[in-house]
Amino acid sequence: MPLIGERTGIGHVTLELLRALAPRLDLDLAVYVVSRNGRRRIGNDVPTRVRVGTSRLPTRLVRPLWEHLPFPRVEHWTGPVDVVHATNYVAPPARAPVIVTVHDLTFVHQPELVAEDTRRFFEPLLHRAIARGATIHVVSDYVGQEMRDAFGLGPDRVVRVYPGITATGGGDPAEGRRVAGAGRYVLALGQLEPRKNLPNLVRAFDRLAGADREVRLLIAGPDGWGRPAFEAAIDAASHGDRVRWLGYVSDHERRDLLAGATAFAYPSLYEGFGHPPLEAMAAGVPVVATTAGAVPEISGDAALLADPLEPEILAGELARAIGDEALRADLIARGHARVQEFSWERAAEDFVELYRSVAVR
Q1: Which of 31, 267, 288, 320 has minimal Cβ neighbours within 10 Å of its Cβ?
Q2: Which domains does the chain carry?
């Protein structure tokens, strides 16, 4: 499950869903951890009412089995269940009906943006889940249409439930500015992978920094296979000394960074949803995002949008978000209104309805 290790977006979503569902007395929840030492690795994150199913079967053995055979079934970890919700593409074989969450189809439409091992593992298992009759949960209408087009699925096989967003309030803006080493900074959150388009953000910031001597750029997120291109962009920039990569940060540090940010940048080449812009809106930070994937659907009218392949345009929108006080106030107000559309309470209700409908099929 995606709760092990340094959590990225999918891990945060999975944990928040568990926390929203755990208090419900009409549900008996179990999570499964495909790892020989899974119980130890998962720590204390899982809510107390949620059972943790583990096994001595190691991941390196289970993965190739699932690629070719209909076992071991997930009930080996969980015991008998009514519905299986696979929250991260990989739908295990099961006796019970299966729901598999598809967050995006990067590995289908833009495979060059996905690590080879991820592409090799996800795609065949998704095909197998569809062939076995799994219901596909998608996080946006954009991904829903992609699933129907790519796999020829009818509307009854694809269900959209918007996730909620992680709480971002309570951060210390002074601490965020201390970490940045500046009174004003642009913040980006994301792993160093090609899909996040961080080299183009560095190029855009370099244009912005030429006219603004004080602003800095901070990127927070885990290391990844896009690091060489990211570092090359910094080395080539005239103002690369004002760009700082923080690596993975804790939830507490994340809130501080958001609280102190002057603007938030989300330059992704493709997203099936996009949580960070909403988190920034909830923290009262003006957002500059891109026209890629589901980002316009999720951001609505509460963000400035730019072509992700045009650093000059991205730089111009960042300059507006930083320097135009009337626009900043408008974006902040629109952002606060927009995030009200995405709550975990609403998501939990929708998921329970989905679970019940699938369980009786």
Answers
A1: 320
A2: 9-164+343-359 (3.40.50.2000), 173-339 (3.40.50.2000)
